[in-house]
TrEMBL record:
<dbReference type="GO" id="GO:0050797">
    <property type="term" value="F:thymidylate synthase (FAD) activity"/>
</dbReference>
<dbReference type="InterPro" id="IPR036098">
    <property type="entry name" value="Thymidylate_synthase_ThyX_sf"/>
</dbReference>
<dbReference type="Pfam" id="PF02511">
    <property type="entry name" value="Thy1"/>
</dbReference>
<dbReference type="GO" id="GO:0050660">
    <property type="term" value="F:flavin adenine dinucleotide binding"/>
</dbReference>
<dbReference type="GO" id="GO:0070402">
    <property type="term" value="F:NADPH binding"/>
</dbReference>
<protein>
    <submittedName>
        <fullName>Thymidylate synthase ThyX</fullName>
    </submittedName>
</protein>
<dbReference type="InterPro" id="IPR003669">
    <property type="entry name" value="Thymidylate_synthase_ThyX"/>
</dbReference>
<dbReference type="GO" id="GO:0004799">
    <property type="term" value="F:thymidylate synthase activity"/>
</dbReference>
<dbReference type="GO" id="GO:0006231">
    <property type="term" value="P:dTMP biosynthetic process"/>
</dbReference>
Length: 465
């Protein structure tokens, strides 16, 4: 007869120690925990986790963390973790009219002027969207007025969110293992944005040095005093960027479509192309073609350089992982935030570049009411071209801004994403993207695509949310 029980109110590191003891003791978890102290746990973890490299022990310590009053830009950096579990303030359901914004120390006064222009357009598009949707979709007789108003308001926010600047403050909560948390902090320390550096520093401090916020019982101990104590910036990733970035600038950019599907490429070429893609601005097809022009010796030398700077405890770069299907996607940044939450994929996002311009909300175009939106953002982007502080420029891009994302996945995950994101209740921008992904698969792998339960963009219920 199995003996199964839950364990509560145990500090994460003590719990990790107790579970790790299964590999070295035949005693029950309850018996092990009764004899453990935080000092014993710290000593054990230092020996087996840091000295011996048993990283799986850190998978056993989970912690809940709130990260509040950060920019949308920083939130995207935080969420970009393969095993991330959490929630962020939704731009589809929450009105950000009363939110504040992040201001870099070096930003000139024109930074505030640009921000307020986007906020004004955000408010204007809320009003226009509400008016448009109310006229297009009258309230069904059997629907309560409050329910109708809530749905119309949410659909109006789907349009208005295109105008939110990436410096808008948001909040998120996450529950991660200490192992994922350590990897996340190292990656955030390597970010080019000072705000993200500060978040990494405060994140590390909040779990390694400061007492946890305990809403149920009193405690005066940091939540993870040992497992993330020695976390520093990801020097390996920073060194690889130094090697690859100059070469990535040499890649000529070929004409690109919004969705380009690559099924198979020579392994060495694919690895080099993914590195070039991560540190450049060209399409994946352009990177693959450039990689194919290098000699075998040049390819091997480049890969050799990448691995020569790998430290003794560094894992293989996430950028070198392979999967059968690779979708090179161009999407607005709002849709990117949704696609970036899919965990069973390998993702490489290019840096934010004003040259890709912006997307236009489909409901405005379909109603012939997109002139004000296009005119305002076109003039706004023209002003950004003369903006002097390049380090703070990405914060001034709106959620409408287009960016590239390379997503590698297997067929099952592609089907899951297409089925989920094409549904009627989804945001119209990623519904179209999911349909385009399906079409790309249907053309190249029709025997598999026929089994995907995709919802065509034309099938739409405005009251399904």
């Amino acid at each position: 007869m199995p003996h199964i029980y839950a364990v509560t109110n145990v500090p994460p590191e003590v719990l990790a120690y107790g579970m790790a003891k299964y590999s070295r003791s035949n005693r029950s978890l309850a018996d092990n925990l009764k004899n453990l102290t935080e000092d014993k746990a710290a000593k054990f973890l230092k020996t087996f986790y840091f000295d011996y490299g048993h990283a799986s022990i850190a998978d056993l310590a989970h912690v809940a963390i709130a990260i509040e009053d950060i920019s949308l830009l920083a939130a995207m950096e935080i969420v970009d973790e393969p095993l991330w579990d959490g929630q962020e303030r939704s731009t589809r359901y929450q009105n950000f009219d009363s939110s504040d914004y992040y201001r870099p120390e070096t930003a000139p006064s024109s930074y505030d002027t640009a921000t307020h222009k986007l906020w004004a357009l955000y408010h204007q598009m809320q009003e226009l969207g509400t008016s448009l949707l109310t006229e297009q979709y009258p309230r069904p007789s059997d629907m309560p007025e409050k329910t109708y108003a809530r749905i119309i308001h949410a659909r109006a926010l789907d349009i208005a969110r295109y105008c939110l600047p990436l410096n808008t403050l948001t909040s998120l909560g996450q529950i991660t293992s200490a192992r994922v948390l350590e990897q996340q902090i190292r990656r955030l320390f390597a970010s080019p944005f000072p705000e993200v550096h500060n978040i990494a520093r405060e994140l590390k401090k909040s779990i390694a040095d400061q007492p946890a916020v305990d809403l149920m019982y009193q405690t005066n101990q940091p939540v993870l005093p040992t497992l993330v104590k020695y976390t520093e910036a990801d020097a390996y990733l920073m060194a690889v960027r130094t090697i690859i970035e100059p070469l990535a600038k040499q890649v000529p950019s070929l004409p690109a479509q919004a969705v380009e599907l690559t099924i198979q490429a020579p392994l060495l070429d694919a690895q080099i192309a993914q590195l070039l893609y991560a540190f450049g601005q060209a399409s994946y097809r352009s990177c693959l073609q450039f990689a194919s022009t290098l000699t075998t010796a040049e390819k091997q030398e480049l890969i050799s350089q990448v691995f020569s700077v790998r430290g003794p405890h560094d894992e293989w770069l996430r950028l070198l992982r392979q999967a059968p299907l690779q979708f090179d996607l161009i999407m607005d940044t709002g849709a990117y935030r949704d696609f970036n939450r899919h965990r069973r994929t390998h993702k490489i996002a290019q840096s934010l570049n004003p040259d890709l311009k912006f997307s236009i909300p489909a409901p405005l175009t379909e109603a012939g009411l997109d002139y004000e939106f296009i005119a305002t953002l076109s003039a706004y982007y023209d002003e950004l071209s003369a903006y002097s502080d390049t380090s703070s420029l990405p914060y001034l891009l709106p959620l409408a801004h287009k960016r590239r994302l390379l997503m590698s996945m297997d067929l099952a995950e592609a089907a899951y994403i297409i089925e989920l994101r094409s549904r009627s209740q989804g945001h119209f921008s990623y519904r179209q993207l999911a349909w385009d992904m399906y079409e790309a698969l249907r053309q190249q792998l029709p025997d598999f695509a026929r089994y995907i339960r995709v919802t065509p963009p034309g099938e739409f219920n405005p009251f399904q949310r």
